């Protein structure tokens, strides 16, 4: 259109732009088709630019103001940083969990992705080797990976698991807290031993148990959720188990140029939490090639089980679906063992089953039940549950082992699930 007051704009615009955006840009008058135009040249900025103290981004055809965690993540990315790399003042190396560090070392030794000398070093040196410190302070990643209670700093840094009869009918649930290595192990263990029932078949006289989600695929899915989750969102990872499906959802954003279709195909590795990802890589638990979803699909196809779907709805959702005909797997197992355990399941045994959410020692079971008498516990609770095959030893060849623990059997889980129905 041209402008009749170009000279005034050449004076006013630079100062207005400087005052509102904090940048200096060249403004000049140009001639085109007999008209005077004002040209403002704005080069891409390596640092974030605010408008009157506010930050805005373009999303499709709309403009959105960034606030809260989204603003923090945006500013960190623009500065070449990531959320998990920010240092946390006031937390010392001595506050990290020895058990979590020992767990990491065990995985790392087996993977051989770190020098033996580094794994034998003192705690401070190991954390430094993993690049989990900055300016003498621990990074956020260090607290998530190795502190026994990262929720002191990051709400929602845990996993929720629920067994659902329908979308609105929750049968029972668990929460898994602690460092990320502990969350990984306990989540997978709970899903395998409490929430998912295997399909039973026979190869000759050999009994074969096949889970609808192969262990390798389940492990990879849980690891992906823990490593790629947006821990600044304050929302836990949520796992829903149904009679005919399993859903794993973790909050977070895809890279700006990515789509769900790209996740399904081979892609480069761009973890949102690179320090967390690097530590899990050094432990040999993940690869660094963006092959997580490929490995899940390969494991499912190899096992002949359904391949999961991937969706994005404010987070990444992985869903396995399988055919459920007739009674559920839990109900089938319950029916098979009903005749065997009738008359053997006393009130004491039912109480014992109800407190066994994971593998437990004798002392842990007694503590959960509030019982002090060892002889009474053994006679009234432990032995009847073992005799009915509702629980089993983790070290059956050494009943008196100091490492002995007990866990629910498939029959115990089925009976417990049946009791929890209204």
Uncertain ranges: 325-343
Q: From the structure provided, what is the oligomeric state, counting identical versus distinct chains?
A: single chain
Category by helix and strand content: alpha+beta
- Strand order across the biggest sheet? 9-8-12-13-15-14
- Output the number of helix runs: 16
The biggest beta sheet reads:
6 strands, mixed
Question: What sort of overall outline do the alpha carbons produce when their principal axes are compared?
Answer: elongated
Distance from N terminus to C terminus (CA atoms, Å) equals: 74 Å
Helix content: 40-55%
Question: What proportion of the residues form beta strands (DSSP E)?
Answer: 15-25%
What is the residue-averaged pLDDT?
A: 85
Query: What's the count of strands?
Result: 17
Please state the CA-atom Rg, rounded to the nearest Å: 28 Å
Description:
By secondary structure, the chain is α+β, with helices and mostly antiparallel strands. 41% of the residues lie in helices and 20% in strands. It has 16 helices and 17 strands. It has a six-stranded mixed sheet with strand order 9-8-12-13-15-14. Strands 5-7-6 form a three-stranded antiparallel sheet. Strands 1-2 form a two-stranded antiparallel sheet. A hairpin with a 2-residue loop joins β1 and β2. α7 (180-195) runs antiparallel to α8 (215-228) and α13 (347-355) crosses α15. The longest helix is centred in the N-terminal third of the chain and has 16 residues, at 6-21. It is elongated. Mean pLDDT is 85; it is low at 325-343.
């Amino acid at each position: 259109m041209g402008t009749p007051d170009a000279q005034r704009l050449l004076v006013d615009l630079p100062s207005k732009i400087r005052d509102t955006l904090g940048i200096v840009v060249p403004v000049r008058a140009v001639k085109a088709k007999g008209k005077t135009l004002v040209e403002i040249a704005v080069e891409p900025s390596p640092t974030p630019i605010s408008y009157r103290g506010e930050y805005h981004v373009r999303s499709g055809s709309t403009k959105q103001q960034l606030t809260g965690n989204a603003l923090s993540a945006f500013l960190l990315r623009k500065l070449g940083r990531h959320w998990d790399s920010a240092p946390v003042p006031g937390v010392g190396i001595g506050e990290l969990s020895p058990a979590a560090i020992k767990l990491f070392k065990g995985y790392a030794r087996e993977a051989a992705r770190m020098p033996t000398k580094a794994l034998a070093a003192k705690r401070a040196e190991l954390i430094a080797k993993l690049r989990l410190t900055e300016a003498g302070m621990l990074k956020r990643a260090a607290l998530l990976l190795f502190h026994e209670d990262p929720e002191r700093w990051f709400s929602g840094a845990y996993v929720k698991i629920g067994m659902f009869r329908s979308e609105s009918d929750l049968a029972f649930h668990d929460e898994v807290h602690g460092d990320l290595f502990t969350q990984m192990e306990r989540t997978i263990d709970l899903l395998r031993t409490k929430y998912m029932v295997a399909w039973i078949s026979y190869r000759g006289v050999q009994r074969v148990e096949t889970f609808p989600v192969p262990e390798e695929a389940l492990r990879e899915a849980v690891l992906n959720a823990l490593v790629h989750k947006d821990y600044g969102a304050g929302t836990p990872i949520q796992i829903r188990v149904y009679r005919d499906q399993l859903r794993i959802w973790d909050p977070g954003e895809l890279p700006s140029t990515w789509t769900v279709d790209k996740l399904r195909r081979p892609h480069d590795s761009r973890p949102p939490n690179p320090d967390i990802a690097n530590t899990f890589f050094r432990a040999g638990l993940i690869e660094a090639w963006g092959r997580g979803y490929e490995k899940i699909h390969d494991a499912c196809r190899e096992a002949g089980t359904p391949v999961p779907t991937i969706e994005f709805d404010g987070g990444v959702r992985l869903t396995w679906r399988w055919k459920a005909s007739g009674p559920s797997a839990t109900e089938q197992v319950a029916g098979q063992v009903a005749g065997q355990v009738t008359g053997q399941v006393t009130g004491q045994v039912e109480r014992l089953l109800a407190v066994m959410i994971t593998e437990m020692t004798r002392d842990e079971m007694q503590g959960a039940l509030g019982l002090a008498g060892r002889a009474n516990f053994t006679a009234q609770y432990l032995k009847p549950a073992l005799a009915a095959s509702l629980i089993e030893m983790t070290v059956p060849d050494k009943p008196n082992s100091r490492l002995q623990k007990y866990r629910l059997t498939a029959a115990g889980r089925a009976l417990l699930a049946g009791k929890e129905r209204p």
